[in-house]
Amino acid sequence: MSDSKSLAFNIASILAEHKAGDVVVMDLTGIAGWTDYFVIGTSTSITHLRGLSRFVDAYLTEDKQKPLNKPVATEDESWLLHDLGDVIVHIMSQEARTFYELEKLWFKAKVFKIEASPGRQETAEE
């Protein structure tokens, strides 16, 4: 498993374990020239969004990853983006996720739904 693929699936698992909704990893290799994977998860509130972002930050620090940006959540934030170069993490409110429809925009990508479980499950969606 490539480093960027491992990173994407590890972050997706962290989001799922911390109750992010509808967590997916999108494989953009060969589709986008500027990144390999999107990780997308839905938050239930601004507090949840901030918490999920902190868990991602903690993992990146522990894994000695250097993000290209450090998102800051304001009171009305609905989307936080962690840019790791080969992996882009999107933590979104349900409203933002419905509005921007990243899965439809990148419809050629292979999508893996991630669910929280002791033995992390990876399943491809057709």
**Any idea of the CATH topology?**
Beta Polymerase, domain 2
Q: Compute the number of helices.
A: 4
What is the tally of beta strands? 6
Q: How large is the share of residues in beta strands?
A: 25-35%
CATH superfamily: Beta Polymerase, domain 2
- Secondary-structure-based class equals alpha+beta
Provide the spatial order of strands within the biggest beta sheet.
3-4-2-1-5-6
**Text of the CATH class:** Alpha Beta
Detail the poorly predicted runs: 120-124
Mean pLDDT over the residues = 90
Write down the domain tally. 1
General form: globular
What's the architecture in CATH terms?
2-Layer Sandwich
Sheet with the most strands, sense and barrel status: 6 strands, mixed
- Radius of gyration of CA atoms, rounded to a whole number: 13 Å
N-to-C CA distance: 21 Å
Share of helical residues: 25-40%
Order of helices and strands: HEEHEEHHEE
Record the SSE blueprint.
Blueprint (H helix, E strand, L loop, with lengths): L2 H15 L3 E7 L9 E7 L2 H17 L16 E5 L3 E7 H7 L1 H4 L4 E6 L5 E5 L1
Parallel strand pairs: 2-4
Antiparallel strand pairs: 1-2, 1-5, 3-4, 5-6
Protein described:
With 126 residues, this protein is an alpha+beta fold. The chain has four helices and six strands; from the N terminus they run H-E-E-H-E-E-H-H-E-E. Helix content is 34%, strand content 29%. The protein starts with a helix and ends with a strand. The protein has helices spanning 3-17, 46-62, 94-100, 102-105, and strands at 21-27, 37-43, 79-83, 87-93, 110-115, 121-125. A six-stranded mixed sheet has the order 3-4-2-1-5-6. The chain has one domain: Beta Polymerase, domain 2, CATH 3.30.460.10.
